[in-house]
């Protein structure tokens, strides 16, 4: 597992108060907003803030956000491409 | 037909709750040696799913839990109104949001902390929990917040020609920031050694502070679980100490009662030497009946009177006068039928609540 993916999982758990989850509970390709992790619309806002605050990447197109935040893998790929 | 308000369900979280059990127990008294009395309860998972709880601050957890628990107690699934009173709202998340606002120069703020920092968050979260679209209103009126919500409940029942199951409660939480401000303002006692059970002995400025959530289900229909009737309540914003007795007599007279008709008085004494004088006229006037107080056990807060009301309805239902709550040694000579509560906060927001045995 790359450091970035590991780091993202830790940030998601901390920022979204997912107290019952450990880093090892989240797989790189798990669907963040599906049944596996179960995030909701407020979490999406938190992830947008997280991306801008910690990686300096601003997401303005909601359609783009849906693809970027699909999984930890898609988030990491997007960060690698844009930073 | 004159309608009556029955209290059919209750639930309380206070510094008297234990880690496992929410509602206070007359026998098991929690004692404190500090001026800040916090709720130790951890059993929220009994009623709130962990996924729903992850964004909830303490006041939201306390509020949602006691609201749900009061409905279960009343055997009601859908309230017709959700009325909440809070003096300070979701203070912990407000503090975090404002601190982040300063630290991050008003940019890139957590939306969760903003959403959770408003005063009506508890009422909103209760509605989300119950999937309720019922009338939902939050009263933020300082130390008259709970009474204002209760007044709305009473007026709704008395004026609307339909059946009601009204969920009404008072919620306030302590934050580190609040403690600092209240210490600066001498609203918290500064004694280095302090025992809460001796609160009235110190004769010094300030009090001990507390937090909690207390919900009631109120209806015009009596149920098998009815605790008491809410007969009336009255609020006065500002009074001199010598006016308290006159206002009390006037309130009783409006309800066709006199001093001699009251069987028990619950007072909001908090040990502040500057303001406990407001309770003296009633302590003297009602010298021959049992007097009860509660802030030595739960601390002062803007919605502490909601705990006082829970105490009143529990005493009416159980007919038991818990020793730790007694302000005098007078034993009840007959069934406790009419209970009068009087409270004030630093000389303001005087409230009277009249309860009756069912």
Automatic annotation (TrEMBL), chain A:
Q: What superkingdom heads the lineage?
A: Bacteria
> Which keywords has UniProt assigned to this entry?
Phosphopantetheine, Phosphoprotein
The yes or no answer to whether the keyword 4Fe-4S is present is no
User: Where would I find the Carrier domain in this sequence?
Assistant: 2-83
Transmembrane feature ranges? none
Write down what this protein is called: Acyl carrier protein
Automatic annotation (TrEMBL), chain B:
Under the heading InterPro entries, the entry gives: Beta-ketoacyl_synthase (IPR000794), Ketoacyl_synth_N (IPR014030), Thiolase-like (IPR016039)
> Any keyword Transport?
no
Task: Say yes or no: keyword DNA-binding present.
Answer: no
Q: Which Pfam families match?
A: ketoacyl-synt
Name the UniProt key words of this record, in alphabetical order: Transferase
Superkingdom per UniProt: Bacteria
Beta-ketoacyl synthase-like N-terminal domain sequence ranges: 47-221
Q: What is this protein called?
A: 3-oxoacyl-ACP synthase
What is the protein's species of origin? Mesonia mobilis
């Amino acid at each position: 597992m790359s450091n970035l993916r590991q780091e993202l999982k830790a940030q998601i758990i901390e920022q979204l108060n997912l107290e019952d989850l450990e880093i090892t509970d989240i797989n790189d390709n798990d669907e963040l907003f599906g049944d596996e992790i179960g995030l909701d619309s407020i979490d999406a806002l938190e992830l947008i803030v997280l991306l801008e605050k910690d990686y300096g990447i601003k997401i303005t197109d909601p359609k783009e956000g849906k693809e970027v935040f699909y999984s930890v893998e898609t988030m990491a790929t997007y960060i690698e491409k844009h930073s | 037909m004159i309608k009556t308000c029955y209290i059919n369900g209750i639930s309380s979280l206070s510094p008297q709750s234990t880690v496992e059990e929410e509602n206070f127990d007359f026998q098991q008294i929690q004692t404190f040696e500090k001026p800040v009395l916090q709720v130790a309860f951890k059993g929220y998972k009994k009623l709130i799913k962990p996924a729903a709880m992850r964004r909830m601050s303490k006041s939201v957890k306390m509020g949602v839990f006691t609201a749900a628990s009061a409905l279960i107690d009343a055997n009601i699934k859908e309230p017709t109104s959700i009325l909440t009173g809070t003096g300070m709202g979701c203070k912990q998340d407000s503090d975090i949001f404002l601190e982040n606002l300063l630290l991050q120069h008003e940019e890139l703020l957590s939306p969760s902390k903003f959403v959770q920092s408003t005063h009506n968050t508890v009422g909103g979260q209760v509605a989300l929990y119950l999937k309720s679209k019922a009338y939902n209103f939050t009263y933020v009126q300082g130390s008259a917040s709970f009474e204002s919500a209760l007044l709305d409940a009473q007026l709704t029942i008395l004026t609307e020609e339909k059946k009601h199951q009204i969920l009404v409660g008072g919620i306030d939480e302590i934050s580190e920031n609040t403690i600092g401000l209240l210490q600066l303002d001498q609203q918290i006692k500064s004694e280095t050694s302090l025992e809460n059970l001796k609160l009235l002995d110190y004769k010094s400025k300030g009090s001990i502070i507390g937090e909690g959530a207390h919900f009631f289900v109120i209806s015009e229909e009596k149920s098998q679980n009815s605790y008491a009737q809410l007969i009336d309540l009255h609020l006065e914003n500002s009074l001199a100490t010598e006016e308290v007795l006159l206002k009390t007599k006037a309130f009783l007279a409006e309800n066709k009662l006199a001093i001699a008709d009251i069987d028990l008085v619950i007072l909001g004494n908090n040990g502040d030497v500057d303001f406990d004088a407001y309770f003296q006229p009633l302590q003297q006037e009602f010298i021959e009946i049992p007097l009860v107080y509660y802030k030595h056990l739960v601390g002062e807060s803007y919605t502490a009177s909601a705990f006082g009301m829970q105490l009143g309805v529990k005493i009416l239902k159980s007919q038991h006068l818990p020793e730790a709550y007694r302000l005098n040694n007078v034993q009840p000579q007959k069934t406790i039928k009419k209970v009068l509560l009087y409270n004030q906060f630093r000389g303001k927001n005087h409230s009277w609540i009249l309860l009756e045995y069912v």
